[in-house]
Amino acid sequence: MKRRDALKNSAAVLGMLLAAGLLPQAAYAGYNKAAFDAKTVAEVLKALGAAAPAESKEVTLTAPDIAENGAVVPLGAATSLPNVKQVLVLVEKNPNTLVASFAVSDAVEANFLTRAKLGQSSDVYAVAITGDGKAFYAKKEVKVTLGGCGG
User: Which domain of life is it from (predicted)?
Assistant: First the structure.
């Protein structure tokens, strides 16, 4: 059996187990459909039960000034705030604003890297949500060039 065939078969089996309810809810309990379906930053934070965000120097966002290929834009979010429970990466002008959500505990350093697709130039946010529901953010505009011609 080829590796590709094995992966296809295991994905199909996993899907059937999920559909049949034979996997525990914990396998996908961290997924918040309302947050990922939200269209604005405010809607995402509301779906996650967070307060209105405040800008903070203790939250950092790593993103390029110009992304030549909007299909794979490297983004990083980190914070040194205490009692952080969740770190988010948000892209304001994407069809779905919430790009990534990372759960944080005492055993996890709140420093994450990911790649995202940006359909157009947009403000990108790194948001840290604390255990008491307060939200803090850092923001940066990322310009997406189309075919290297500017955008």
Answer: Bacteria
CA distance 60 to 84: 14
pLDDT digits (tens, 9 = 90+) for 76-87: 999 999 999 999
> What does pTM read for this prediction?
0.77
d(Cα 106, Cα 139) in Å, to the nearest integer? 25
Superfamily of domain 32-144: SoxY domain (2.60.40.2470)
